Amino acid sequence: MGNAVVKIFGMPNITEAEVDPENNSIFLNGTQYHVNQLSWEPPVSGTIYGVLLNYQGAFHRYREQMTHSPYNEPPKAPILYIKPINTLSGYRSPIPLPEDADELEVGAALGVVIGRTATKVKEEEAFQYVAGYTVVNDVAIPHENIYRPAIRERARDGFNPVGPWIIKKESIVDPNSLDIRVFVNGKLAQKNNTKNFIRPVARLLADITEFMTLYPGDVLLTGVPEQAPLVKAGDHVRIEIEGVGSLENTIVHEADYVKGAVR
């Protein structure tokens, strides 16, 4: 059990509630509900920043490529990108498969939600600036180029489901040691652990806030593991992050996509 911040369709404000991440259930007004019994909105409101190659396996996959032009050497700072507001969606919202793509990559990511304005944060004080954690599917069209920002591949409508809630940081003992699992149509398609981060959460926050400010409500995606599962229209995706919760969405053809719909 843990305390969480939720945003349920029909409720005017973001609400605090007790949740059970293991069973994906929530207690509201003394009644326990499974997440599928409610309609969810994304529980976040700030800017969403992604980090490339923060898993050891993902980094080593591109290590040789980084020694050639135009990179010439591995990066010395986190590689960041933004998931704009048009990408944001919630639990069980459909994910559109664009007409110009055959399949999508499932980007299972731990989202770190900022609770205080963070500028030049010291690594040992980083968690003082964290409000909590959430599950994110950093969807992308498969691509190999990491030199230029992959806006066309990562910034499509509905390409960033988040939720179902933000679990408060006190409920997570160590965000750098959480199992992450991806299921496609009920079958395990990927398994990893945040202990394989190149930069743990506190180090990421320190390195990023050295040159830019993060504000309350902003979300930092801590990276996507290597060998992201590929999915097509009709596939159902479930991302589980230990202690945080489970996020479920279904892939639909772009022509059938309706923003805010639940499937």
Automatic annotation (TrEMBL):
Cite the entry's keywords alphabetically: Isomerase, Metal-binding
Indicate whether Isomerase appears among the record's keywords. Answer: yes
Q: Where does the Fumarylacetoacetase-like C-terminal domain start and stop, copy by copy?
A: 47-252
User: Matching InterPro entries, A to Z?
Assistant: FAH, Fumarylacetoacetase-like_C, Fumarylacetoacetase_C_sf, HPA_isomer/decarb_N
MF annotations from Gene Ontology: 5-carboxymethyl-2-hydroxymuconate delta-isomerase activity; 5-oxopent-3-ene-1,2,5-tricarboxylate decarboxylase activity; metal ion binding
Q: Which Pfam families match?
A: FAA_hydrolase
Q: Does the keyword Isomerase apply?
A: yes
Q: Which SUPFAM superfamilies match?
A: FAH
Biological process, per Gene Ontology: small molecule metabolic process
Give the UniProt family note: Belongs to the FAH family.
Indicate what this protein is called per its UniProt record.
4-hydroxyphenylacetate isomerase
Species this chain originates from: Aeribacillus pallidus
List the top taxonomic levels of the source: Bacteria, Bacillati, Bacillota, Bacilli, Bacillales
